[in-house]
Amino acid sequence: MGDPSVCCQPCATCLLCLYSCRWITAKEKRKGLKTTKCDCSWFLFLFFVFLFTLVWLYFTIIILNDFHNFNEFIFKQRKLWLDWSLVLLIATAVLITYSTVLVVLALCLQLCGQPLKLHWLHKILLIFTALVVAAAFTGLGIKWAEEWRSARVSLQATGPFLHIGIVGGMTLLAWPLASFIYRTRNTGLTVFLLLVYCMVMITLYLAPLGITSPCIMEENQLPPKPALVGHRGAPMLAPENTLMSLHKAVDCDVQVFETDVMVSADGVPFLMHDEELTRTTNVEAVFPERAALNSTAFNWTDLQKLDAGSWFLERRPFPTVQSLSAVDRNEVTQQRIPSLEQALEAAKQSNISIMFDLRPENHSDYQSFVNATLEVILESGIPLHQVLWLPDGFREQVKQQAPGVQQIYGRKRLQNEKEPLLHVNLPYQEMSSEEIRQYRQDNISVNLYVVNQPWLFSVLWCSGVSSVTTNACQVLKEMKHPIWLLPSSTYLMIWIVVDCASFLVILWAFLLLKKCSQRRRPAESETDVLLTKINSLMQE
Questions:
Q1: Does residue 43 form part of some domain?
Q2: Locate the GP-PDE domain: which residues (predicted)?
């Protein structure tokens, strides 16, 4: 390493202090403090940890769409409610900030020609960071494997922009790389680094050939905006599966109210998602000795004694709870568990459809649940085409007794389908853009769940999905257009401009630093000659 040529000595000393956790003066550096092979290995490890953490940050942002499910899962296991997404975001921000600062320090030190002496405390923290992120990825793969498919979907929304960002980052990396190459005397290492860097850049320059996104299309090819299905109503604005939630969903222009139905011990169908009442009612206060029982073990009279709204204000399942008006807060406290009959009447008056699951499907009295539910539907007077039936159990019986009810299937169509599927309801991870387009061409209505983030809604909109089930109907309602839409010709132009600009900057970096290196060498040679003459005179 030569003396710093890009930054002043005080700046270089400060950078060394931060990176090495000790004050190294220029005099000490001249005594032989150099970057060893071990130091280079630690820098490579640091760069790997930085990239590893950066990938985890991307996954963190993607899984926020589904994080409410994780919060519900933790509550069922530990009876503890907390918005774990905040914990995840804060922890990830700390790790990515720490690794980014160290990488920037290392690159600046390289440009300044300073030794990369990473302090042992930084080494321990880097190992800890790598282990934490590895554990996070492992846990994600074991407990939440479907999020890997969510990442695949997300690349359709972010792929073009990730490409530009990565090209930009690798282009900036040319400066410290050129600085290192012109300072080192190891020819083999220089050739290896140049080959690797060139291969990476060529791959990045050609990457758009493999990038596909449904939102790369002409404006006139954009399908109609997907209809909104309120997941348990509007759960960000009101307690889920309540009449208030249904009415808030209607205000968000949803076309379907999606809910879950159970049947009480005395045969009354009611709205409830969980098999236990503890999460969304005050059952522990009213019936403490029966709180752990299945929801179907309670009769309708007991269920009507429960408060189905106050938990919403106490636990704040979504950040939007804080912005509720005083009138809404008061209405929340008045909510009770609604019966299916009440929900059907509200849906009929609001002229929206209602779609539901009938739980629990493994119950020994499930057929009686189906009979009780059908009886309420037929007596409600709601037009049967506004009822969307999800349960697979006893579906043929439902078709016979209520032929006007729309049958919604939670699976893809089969090759030898006896009856053509007209409506499917699937997780958004399970259908590709190509499948959505094919189903649309075959006049099959596709509803995907649960879609909360605008980026995901945009991708599915461009793909041509018929409708989406969402917790965030108030957000998606306001979207008049996908977040981005690029004609293929425009994307091609952006691709060429970015690649050309990157190549020119890299070329400039290597030529400029080569020129600076050549200017230093004559001065160093003249100094060596002068020192040799002085040494000869002293010996004489």
A1: yes
A2: 226-480
Domain membership of residue 314 (yes or no) is: no
Q: Measured between alpha carbons, how far is 36 from 32 in angstroms, rounded to an integer?
A: 11
Nearest Cα to Cα of residue 69 among 362, 469, 447, 440: 469
Q: How far apart are CA 338 and CA 244, in angstroms?
A: 10
End-to-end CA distance of the chain: 33
Helix (H) or strand (E) holding 200, with range, is helix 187-206
473 & 508 share domain: no
| Residue pair 466/406 in contact by the 8 Å Cβ criterion | no
Say if strands 387-389 and 353-358 run parallel, antiparallel, or are unpaired. Answer: parallel
Tell me how many domains the chain contains. 3
In a domain, 125, yes or no: yes
Question: What is the residue-wise DSSP string for 69-135?
Answer: HHHHHHHHHHS----HHHHHHHHHHHHHHHHHHHHHHHHHHHHTT------HHHHHHHHHHHHHHHH
In terms of domains, do 250 and 352 share one?
yes
Q: Which domain holds residue 511?
A: 151-213+487-521
Residues 511 and 393 in one domain: no
pLDDT in tens, 507-523: 999 999 888 777 655 54
Q: In angstroms, rounded to a whole number, what is the distance separating the alpha carbons of residues 272 and 340?
A: 10
Q: Which residue has the tokens 């790790």?
A: 95
Contact criterion met (CB below 8 Å) for 216 and 490: no
Q: Which of 211, 127, 197 is nearest to 164 (CA)?
A: 211
**Same domain for 496 and 466:** no
Residues 238 and 207 in one domain: no
Q: How far apart are CA 253 and CA 271, in angstroms?
A: 21
**pLDDT tens digit sequence for 245-297:** 999 999 999 999 999 999 999 999 999 999 999 999 999 999 999 999 999 99
Q: Which two tokens stand for residue 450?
A: 């649960």
Judge whether 268 lies within some domain. yes
